[in-house]
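Researcher: Go.
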Amino acid sequence: MTADEVVQKFGLSPRLRQRRFALLPLRGEGSPFTELQGRLPGDSTTPADLADLISSISNVGVLQPVLVEEIDAGDGKHPAMKLAAGERRLRACRWGAVHRPDNPHFAALPAVVCPGPLSDEERRVWQLVENLARENLRPGELAAALVLDRCAVLLGKLLAGGHAVPTDVYAIDDPIARFAAMERIRGTDKRCAAPWAEVLSRLGLQLSPRKARELVRAFAEMPREIAEEMDEAKVSLHTRIRFVELSRGRAQAAQDIWAAVKDSGRTRLLPSALAAATDEPELSPEQALAEAERVQEQADTARAEKLRADPDRPEQAATVDSRLVDRTLAALRQLLLALVQGGQLGPHDRGSLALLLDQLGDIVHKGEAA
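Model: Structure:
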């Protein structure tokens, strides 16, 4: 499903339908400005914080356009371009324009521009639409997007059913708090329910109601700053659920274990550390991390022994042929290159690929945890 198709389903502001793609200058008239947003303080973000992103853009360009709101400045002046989403991409491109001016990827900033000014609600929906069309959201971002759309479904049903919804309710920033407030208004009126199957069908996402519930449960029960940190560290949904389960009875212990794992720089130890703390509640965070390291070392040793073993031994059959992995990686690199060069996936292929990559990620993370 394209962003325009999602907008059509939402039936929202005509201004959102006037979105256009543009290449914006990075300096001077027409360049976007930004207010503080996102996970990191904007002006204190250093080139070192953006090193990976700068390297990626210098090689393949900006893969996802930023979102920019075009605001009439009056008096015949050039419209002001206010960034709505993509602060890190903007800052990385600004750095590249100054320090690597010969690189064509830093010559201009790809952007989706929408006429403004937009209301807060329109801006949230716009970000949701563009992100859902992107189909590569991290778990925390996807969970927030799903809850926001479920709020939209519930709001429409409440209004159609004659329920008064105060403006300050559907303007609540936190998606979970907004949905809870609307649910209180719905009460026992089953006609106004917003089931997950309906929400997912409306968005055209190939996601099961069960997985949607798991995503939102992990998002709702986890402190926002930890959810964002786990997004950055690419922690799997399976591991997040284990974190939430430990948090229910021992919230501080779960948070201390995450802090210890994060500080160690080895976030792949988190599943084993959580398992150790669950099995032995008396362990301190440092002891749980040490146990996770011991388990990981044992697993690494066992894998090394299998690799050295006779290939005809039965247990060796469980190891995936490295040639298959090499061919798969080569094919994925070719696909990425084709997409970077402007190729497009059909709706079915895009959904199938997203689903397979999601399942592959879960299996790989579960294998690391085991």
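Model: Residues 238 and 362 are 7 Å apart (CA to CA).
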